Amino acid sequence: MRRPWGLALLSLLAGVAAIAVALGPLLASSGGVHGFAFSTIGVGAILIGLNALRRNRRAPSAGVLATAVAGIGAGAIGSVAMLGMLVTSPGGPTLLPFAPAGPVVAGSTGQWAASTTQVTLTSVAVVGVGPTKQVVVGNGGSVRLAAGYSFRSATSNPQLDVRLERRVAGGGWTATGIEATVAPNAPLTAATPAYSTTLATEAVQYRFASGTSASAPVSVVYENQHLYTGMAATIYADAAPYCPNTAVEIAHLGGREAGDYAPGALLIRISTAVGVRANLTRASQRALALHECSHERQWLNYGGSQEGYAQMKAAAAADFTVGDNGAPPIEHAADCGAMALEPNGYLGYGGFCTRAELNEGARLLNGQEY
Ligand SMILES: [Zn+2]
Questions:
Q1: Is the pLDDT of residue 194 over 80?
Q2: 81: helix, coil or strand?
Q3: What is the CATH T-level fold of the domain 100-104+116-222, as seen in this structure?
């Protein structure tokens, strides 16, 4: 085979490979580094094709010309498609990489329809908690799940068709009827549907699914508060008027805290010392329940999102002084909410609550914002 022929065929091979890699499903979720490496295949196809054309001038062959031009064209298409994939969202959250693929180069007839949009689900998290396999709520509770994703589409404004599925013990994946929503440059999110169990606890798995991809599952553990006993039942009864969907667990908290609440889940944890070595009076137990329930409402009343939580902190800093020992305003705010409804309780973080602080603290427990 004459040398121009070999170069022309090599150019065509590399060009086709560049397109195949650009359109292949693997790269959609693997980010920019691979994309950059593979884009050199397309550039290589162009350079080799040009070299073949240069060597074809002495004894011109129409076959070499056609093959080399095809290789150059394929290399260009592959490179452009790859560059489109390298476009990443400038404001995307780092926790959940959002890597939209740019428009794939459509055929000259532009026949790719919006329905060809392929969504690849790359990660899953509980909003407020972060990446996790499990989260605990009480009966009737809901959490918001978020999915990192990438997509490829022939349109600049594609329809992302992603739904929330669930699986109860012993069953298969079924539809919840809930579609994920997406804001520009943000993860896909969906709130899990309200669910209650008649068992003491029950785990239900949820996942995001598109036509071609499914996320890892997240297990939501529902606790049936009506079957609580002992201190868990006591604390839940105190919190329930304001935090009806919370779970309560008695846990070893390291001895420093009487209780805690972490944003994202619906779970109040109470130290094993409560009622045994600490918080011996009913009023102090109720104050503790209302303090932790205030933290739950600090998350829920502002939309259950990181943006809302930041708004809440700013509002608390404006409306509440810091506690005696320099604790953050959200702690003094939770103390004052508890004191407003349980005047015989205590302020875990010290100081005192003004009339205005008591009013604001009670507003939050009743479902309003600070
Ligand atoms: Zn607190």
A1: yes
A2: helix
A3: Immunoglobulin-like (2.60.40)
